[in-house]
Amino acid sequence: MAELWKSLPSWVRNIVVPIIVLILAWNVIWFLVGAIASLVGFLIKVAVLVGVAAAVVILVKKAAKS
Q1: For residue 16, which of 4, 12, 48, 49 is within the disulfide window of CB 3.0 to 4.6 Å?
Q2: Where does the pLDDT of residue 66 fall: very low under 50, low under 70, confident under 90, or very high at 90 and above?
């Protein structure tokens, strides 16, 4: 690997490779942000669904008593 790195022209080592690394890092970061955001959104939807279901159960029990 060191031989390959040394065989590259200096402009490739100093300009092209860092740009490619930055682009890859940017894509990985935004992939992680998107995955975390979608997980949080899913958890919020589940919490709302559970809350609505609990409210319905409570209201049905109250209606059955009266």
Answers
A1: 12
A2: confident
For 1, the 3-state DSSP assignment is coil
Which pLDDT tens digit goes with each residue over 22-55?
999 999 999 999 999 999 999 999 999 999 999 9
Does this model's pTM top 0.85? My answer is: no
Cα–Cα distance, 18 to 24 (Å, whole number): 10
Q: Whole-angstrom Cα distance, residue 31 to residue 25?
A: 10
Query: Which single residue is written with the structure tokens 């589940």?
Result: 46
Question: What is the spatial distance between Cα 9 and Cα 5, in angstroms, rounded to a whole number?
Answer: 9
